[in-house]
Design goal:
Elements: H1 3-16, H2 24-27, E1 29-33, E2 44-45, H3 52-60, E3 67-71, E4 83-87, E5 94-103, E6 114-115, E7 121-123, H4 125-136, H5 138-145, H6 147-150, H7 166-180, H8 184-199, H9 221-234, H10 241-258, H11 263-267, H12 269-282, H13 288-300, H14 305-310, H15 328-334, H16 337-345, H17 348-365, E8 374-375, E9 377-378, E10 386-388, H18 389-406, H19 409-425, E11 437-439, H20 471-475, H21 479-485, E12 488-490, E13 496-498, E14 504-509, E15 515-522, E16 529-536, E17 540-545, E18 554-557, E19 563-564, E20 570-575, E21 578-584, E22 589-593, E23 599-603, E24 606-611
Parallel strand pairs: 13-17
Antiparallel strand pairs: 1-5, 2-4, 3-4, 3-5, 6-12, 7-14, 8-9, 10-11, 12-13, 14-15, 15-16, 16-21, 17-20, 18-19, 18-21, 22-23, 23-24
């Protein structure tokens, strides 16, 4: 390092020694080093009483510095004064009790449209009836009789063995369902499971069963964390939740250095990072650098979905490699990994990869129902091949998440299409039974030994409690409730975005603290008439997504002049006091050419006829 730069650093150390107390990020991650990659002239000797925040401030004011490490004094043979190592290369983490380290600018990029907390959006009309059917069906009764929930290993029982994912799957959907319906009996079930899981957390912080020793052991905790944090959003007075999740992440972080993510954990890492990012923004933990580090380590140990989708390993027809990468549920979950990681990486190619993933996946595997062919593994777009129910709901959630990060209406539109076609097709009307696989061209739902799908069993298209395999019995529960949770988003200008169209009411607060209430009354997708009433104590913008296929859509605000609403765009309405908007979505018939040049006929988003 040049002498002038070194002198400046030493002078800065002197100035900062008197006010070294900083924010949590400046305090660094205690016990973590980032060896090597030092700027020339390192280390910088600090004063005897200087804390890690002094080293952090040095990094902040040194243009070349991207991360830093603080060497504790008198630790394991070290010197009597602390040392600061500034680094020009983003080095990987390494456990070291004598070090504290951190990353420069370790803050997340904001959402394009920020999700609302669980319970802020309530279903109305036909959508409320649909959620009530779900509660009256399997969702509200699995805890009474299905061994993998009623006698779950998460509750000290013998059910839900192996991956231990089925109870977390169930809670991940059942928690929001119970609060969207505001039903005490459902919430009582939630409390029973949450209370047991928290009261039986191990002394070191591990959550749930601990009988696995490989990198798969982390996976079931991902949906459990999502369930716990959704519960906390609806019950922010429950002070147990954030500390319990933080305690788990501490032990998981330690274990990951010895037993890295592998298997399901490695391919589904983005769901872990979603929870960590929630804590970074909402947890007020004072351990922001630690959370950043856990997310970073998870990503470094993950499968490289970004390369997979743009490379030759991605199959452009029915997969011949029946492996984890081509597994349909993994692919459905992975759609959001680029968008999720973009908020931390700040690399625009991560964000932009979301477009490539969706375009390529649905070009080669897309089906008329909006989902993609994956009868366990990617299957091409032949309409007689199947799609797993888990793939349907995970694909929806990924697209909803991408919309929040990227803000492009195309992703919300695609999630809506899946919800209104593929989701109801694979569950009975009373929601007491479901299929493992659905087929677009399905002649019957029977036990069949000679079938076209590749690796699932003869009962895969039966409607039942757990046909073929029980994961979907747990995981289907998130489909409708998370659809409700993502109907509205906050916009950065203090407004609201209606991302997907369904009857509902949202109650929230604007950036200025004003109360905002919006009610949507509609029979969409069966009818194009959408009546919206907005009330607020202050003016705010309301953005309404107009479907890309709905050319000719009109809007009338407060009984005024009819306006054209551009298809595929967000239609803006400035709301003040009480504002009434009537949108008439053009529901013309359209034809889509698909497999072997056969046709699918749509009216709006409802697939009426399949002509293959």
């Amino acid at each position: 390092m040049q002498a002038s730069i070194m002198i400046a650093l030493v002078a800065l150390v002197c100035m900062m020694s008197f006010h070294a107390a900083g924010a949590a990020l400046a305090d660094g991650d205690d016990g973590i080093d980032r060896p090597n990659g030092d700027i020339a002239g390192m280390p910088v000797a600090l004063h005897a009483n200087d804390k890690p925040s002094v080293c952090s401030k040095l990094c902040d004011t040194t243009p070349k510095c991207v991360c830093w490490a603080y060497a504790k004094p008198n630790c394991s043979g070290g010197g009597a004064i602390p040392m600061c190592y500034l680094k020009s290369t983003p080095m990987k983490q390494s456990p070291n009790d004598c070090r504290v380290s951190g990353v420069k600018n370790a803050t997340l990029l904001p959402f394009a449209f920020k999700p609302l907390p669980t319970g802020a959006i309530r279903p109305q009309g036909w959508l409320k009836q649909q959620l009530q059917i779900q509660a009256d069906g399997l969702s509200g009764h699995l805890a009474l009789f299905w061994i993998d929930v009623a006698n779950s290993s998460w509750m000290g029982g013998k059910g839900d063995g192996g991956l231990h994912e089925r109870t977390p799957y169930w809670l991940n959907g059942f928690v929001p369902l119970s609060y969207q319906l505001n039903e005490p009996s459902l919430q009582a079930q939630v409390h029973k499971y949450i209370d047991y899981v928290l009261s039986h957390q191990s002394s070191d912080g591990w959550l749930g069963p601990e009988d696995e020793r490989d990198g798969n052991m982390y996976w079931s905790k991902f949906p459990m964390m999502l369930a716990l944090l959704q519960y906390y959003e609806a019950n922010s007075s429950d002070t147990r939740i954030v500390p319990a999740v933080m305690k788990f992440l501490h032990v998981a972080h330690q274990k990951m250095f010895q037993v890295p993510l592998s298997g399901w954990s490695q391919y589904r890492w983005q769901d872990m990072v979603l929870s960590i990012h929630w804590l970074l923004e909402n947890g007020k933990t004072g351990e922001e650098q630690f959370l950043w580090d856990v997310a970073e380590l998870a990503q470094q140990q993950s499968f490289d979905w970004k390369s997979y989708f743009k490379g030759d390993d991605f199959p452009t027809g029915s997969a011949t490699r029946l492996d984890m990468a081509n597994h349909g549920v993994n692919v459905g979950q992975s759609l959001k990994s680029g968008a999720v990681w973009y908020r931390q990486s700040k690399d625009s190619t991560d964000r932009d990869s979301s477009y490539q993933r969706v375009e390529r996946l649905f070009k080669y595997h897309g089906l008329a129902s909006g989902t993609f062919g994956a009868d366990e593994h990617l299957a091409g777009n032949m309409p007689s091949r199947g799609t797993e129910l888990c793939t349907v709901v995970e694909g929806m959630f990924s697209l909803e998440t991408i919309f929040a990060v990227v803000g492009d209406p195309v992703f919300a539109e695609h999630a809506e299409k899946i919800c209104y076609n593929a989701l109801p097709a694979t569950i009975t009307p009373d929601m007491w039974a479901h299929q493992y696989l659905q087929e677009v061209n399905e002649a019957n739902a029977v036990h069949i030994d000679h079938h076209v799908w590749a690796s699932d069993g003869p009962d895969a298209i039966l409607y039942g409690l757990e046909p073929n395999y029980g994961c979907c019995t747990g995981n289907f529960n998130q489909g409708w409730p998370k659809f409700v949770s993502h109907l509205f988003f906050h916009s950065p200008d203090g407004g609201l975005v209606l991302s997907m169209i369904a009857p509902c009411t949202v109650n929230t607060m604007g950036l200025d603290g004003s109360k905002q209430t919006v009610t949507v009354d509609t029979m969409y997708p069966w009818d194009g008439l959408v009546s919206i009433t907005a009330q607020s104590t202050a003016s705010f913008p309301l953005y309404i997504r107009i479907p890309s296929w709905a050319s000719g859509t009109t809007a009338v605000i407060n009984g005024g002049k009819q306006q054209m609403a551009v298809a595929g765009q967000l239609f803006k309405v400035q709301c003040s006091g009480m504002t009434k908007v009537v949108v008439n979505i053009s529901m013309t018939l359209r034809v889509e050419r698909r497999y072997n040049q056969a046709a699918s006929i749509f009216k709006g988003y409802t697939s009426r006829y399949f002509c293959y």
